């Protein structure tokens, strides 16, 4: 009569009668990631770059156009949360939602497009850092060069939160699909 021997799965304990259970030392085989063909990856990067340029134009139009009529109403905000409280204290909730939501939405394209356009800047912290730096530059330009605009640290925070949202919802997956990381041996 022959005994059938069962092979142990990696990480499972096996024991022979009368012996102590020993954990198997086999490592699980790494799952291979599906890599897109080069022409598809190139097309995805070109499209992402085109969207990034279009976004830069929209960003410049929205944030860097002079507003002489509101020159007397603008003030620099260096205290995080200060202008957020001012937005929320406004009687019309619609204005607060428009201001806060608009700033969050301005950051979303960065979180989606940066991992595709710049593969070395993939990763949550890198995307957030790059977004914060770009938005700080935009805010400095607003405060120093544009009539009727001012630097607001809350705008930078909201834009960066938008980039986080874009990265978590779509950017991470898109970056991984277009630029698969090479496995280290």
TrEMBL record:
Please name one Pfam family that this protein belongs to: VanZ
UniProt KW keywords: Membrane, Transmembrane, Transmembrane helix
| Disordered: annotated span | 1-28
Ranges for the VanZ-like domain? 53-170
List residues traversing the bilayer: 35-60, 100-118, 125-144, 156-175
Q: Which domain of life is it from?
A: Bacteria
- Coiled coil segments of this chain: none
Q: Which organism is it from?
A: Streptomyces spinosisporus
The identity of this protein, by name, is VanZ family protein
């Amino acid at each position: 009569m022959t005994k059938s021997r069962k092979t142990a799965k990696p990480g499972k304990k096996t024991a022979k009668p009368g012996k102590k259970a020993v954990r198997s030392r086999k490592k699980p085989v790494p799952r291979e990631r599906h890599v897109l063909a080069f022409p598809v990856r190139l097309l995805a990067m070109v499209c992402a770059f085109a969207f990034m340029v279009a976004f830069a134009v929209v960003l410049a139009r929205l944030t860097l156009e002079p507003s002489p009529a509101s020159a007397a109403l603008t003030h620099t905000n260096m205290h995080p949360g200060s202008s957020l409280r001012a937005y929320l204290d406004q009687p019309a909730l619609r204005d607060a939602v428009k201001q806060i939501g608009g700033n969050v939405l301005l950051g979303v394209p960065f979180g989606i497009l940066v991992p595709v356009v710049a593969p070395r800047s993939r990763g949550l912290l890198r995307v957030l850092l790059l977004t914060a730096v770009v938005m700080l530059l935009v805010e400095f330009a607003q405060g120093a060069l544009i009539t009727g605009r001012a630097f607001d640290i809350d705008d930078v925070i909201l834009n960066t939160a938008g980039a986080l949202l874009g990265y978590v919802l779509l950017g991470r997956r898109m970056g991984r699909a277009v630029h698969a990381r090479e496995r280290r041996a």
